[in-house]
């Protein structure tokens, strides 16, 4: 059996047909919120696509070692080269099991050609998760490692059941705004329903991924830079209260000047030394290229904190406290003092601490300059109506599917492609934002990881979905257990995949009347 993680032409055609609502199993219905609960111009619907297939089953997915001679009982990679998969399959046969080798194909992305991602080893076909779990116990007892999988969630079945929640905002009727928000401080998380209630919003959706209790990547709110860029990664710019949406790739550069001396600031509003998603500046390890959900490190950094962050982190190093004009109020040889009202704090670790102590003195002045650029190298004006969320990957550009999987770091550097397989190719809950050719903003959530109810989508299928919903520009938001949509009148609209319900989030996108 060939396990193809990219839909064939026939499969994509089936998906297109389903999304065009031509299949009997594809239905569109009003969601739980009634029209009266939403402002004029805002509509909410739920689409039921596909259906459970009798050929879907639970199976045991056997993990592979990182090297051909690696230990089998502690293996942790989901897929690998055929040589390693052959070895694991042979070892399983020696123990009396009947494994299957399946090839996983990577789809063609906008910046990466199609090809073989790797090989996986599976065994058994079980009608229930319990039976698969029991088989896994036997496999582990025999000296192997692994997990259970439901085949409808492999991301290759266009007919798998999906629940799609679509919130459309038509600005020809809607007089409010669509923008972002977070809790009392940036360094903290809040549930979507709490933020909808606290802000008086009509509806909302999750937005950016978050690490160390704060949004990760470029974040501009109301024209203020609150998070520095994962350099060159995709993002969405929202201006004029949501009436203009642009998908592009962004970089940011923040410079600190003391007299004639200057130095680049490594980050804004994040823990010094930890660069989640990588894509930073100044010698980060192991790479300065974007790598989604990977933490890079740098032992020598300067990080700017704004009042929105809350109380800055404590630790060794140095810090300079500035007022609103950049006058240095204090210089400390440890980190963690409160940010002056309306001012900022610049923290430094490693060699950067020596630079800061040498150039900052109480009563002196430090100047911080910021520059955000789009993919063409043009400066992006940070006006009071500008919001930028670096999320990704891009899904649709100029009406065509366009997934920048390489530039966005969805494809891992190195031999282990487990992350790419699990995050980008396999089906997961997804959240998306887009705009159609009539200027209507779309906020979309697809439920996932719920066998027989809604399986979720791979990134290639997610892009196809947004195109079929009419998007001319679309961007992927944080997903998985974070995918959630809510209205003021109804509360949570979808079914978040975490057993505990909705997660607390770093920031959200809100529709405000």
Automatic annotation (TrEMBL):
Highest rank taxon of the organism: Bacteria
Keyword terms, alphabetized: Glycosidase, Hydrolase, Signal
Family annotation (PANTHER family): N-ACETYLGLUCOSAMINE-1-PHOSPHODIESTER ALPHA-N-ACETYLGLUCOSAMINIDASE (PTHR40446)
InterPro entries documented for this protein: NAGPA
Signal peptide start-end: 1-28
Organism: Nonomuraea recticatena
Domain Phosphodiester glycosidase: 326-511
GO molecular function per UniProt: hydrolase activity, acting on glycosyl bonds
Name of the molecule in the record: Phosphodiester glycosidase family protein
């Amino acid at each position: 059996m060939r396990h193809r993680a990219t839909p064939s032409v026939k499969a994509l055609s089936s998906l297109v047909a389903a999304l065009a609502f031509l299949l009997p199993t594809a239905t569109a219905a009003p969601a739980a919120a009634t029209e009266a609960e939403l402002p004029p111009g805002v509509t909410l619907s739920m689409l039921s696509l596909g259906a459970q297939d009798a050929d879907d089953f639970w199976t045991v997915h056997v993990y592979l070692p990182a090297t051909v001679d690696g230990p089998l009982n502690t293996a942790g990679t989901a897929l690998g080269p055929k040589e390693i998969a052959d070895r694991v399959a042979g070892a399983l046969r020696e123990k009396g099991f009947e494994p299957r080798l399946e090839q996983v194909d990577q789809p063609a992305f906008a910046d990466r050609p199609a090809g073989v991602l790797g090989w996986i080893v599976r065994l058994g076909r079980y009608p229930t998760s319990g039976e698969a779990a029991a088989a896994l116990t036997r496999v582990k007892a025999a000296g192997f490692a692994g997990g259970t999988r439901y085949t409808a969630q492999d991301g290759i079945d266009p007919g798998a059941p999906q629940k799609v929640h679509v919130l459309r905002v038509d600005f020809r009727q809607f007089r409010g705004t669509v923008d972002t928000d977070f809790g009392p401080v940036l360094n903290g998380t809040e549930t979507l329903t709490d933020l909808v209630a606290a802000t008086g919003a009509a509806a909302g959706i999750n937005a950016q991924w978050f690490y160390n209790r704060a949004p990760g990547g470029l974040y501009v709110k109301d024209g203020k830079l609150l998070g520095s860029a994962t350099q060159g990664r995709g993002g969405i710019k929202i201006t004029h209260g949501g009436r203009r949406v642009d998908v592009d790739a962004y970089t940011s550069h923040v410079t600190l000047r003391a007299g004639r001396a200057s130095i680049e600031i490594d980050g804004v509003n994040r823990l010094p030394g930890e660069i989640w998603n990588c894509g930073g500046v100044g010698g980060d390890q192991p790479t300065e290229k974007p790598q989604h959900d990977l933490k890079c490190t740098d032992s020598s950094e300067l990080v700017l904190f704004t009042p929105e962050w809350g109380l800055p982190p404590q630790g060794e190093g140095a810090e300079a406290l500035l007022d609103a004009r950049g006058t240095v109020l204090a210089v400390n040889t440890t980190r963690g003092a409160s940010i002056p009202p309306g001012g900022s704090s610049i923290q430094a670790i490693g060699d950067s601490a020596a630079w800061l102590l040498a150039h900052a003195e109480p009563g002196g002045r430090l100047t911080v300059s910021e520059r955000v650029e789009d993919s063409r190298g043009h400066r992006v004006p940070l006006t009071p109506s500008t919001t930028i969320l670096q999320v990704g990957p891009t899904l649709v550009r100029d009406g065509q599917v366009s997934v920048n999987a390489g530039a966005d770091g969805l494809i891992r550097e190195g031999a282990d492609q487990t992350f790419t397989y699990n995050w980008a190719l396999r089906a997961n809950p997804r959240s998306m934002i887009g705009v159609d050719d009539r200027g209507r903003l779309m906020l979309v959530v697809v439920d996932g990881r719920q066998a027989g109810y809604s399986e979720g989508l791979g990134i290639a299928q997610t892009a196809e979905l947004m195109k079929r919903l009419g998007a001319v520009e679309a961007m992927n938001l944080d997903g998985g257990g974070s995918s959630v949509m809510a209205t003021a009148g109804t509360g949570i609209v979808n079914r978040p995949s975490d057993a505990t319900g909705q997660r607390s989030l770093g920031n959200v996108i809100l529709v405000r009347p």
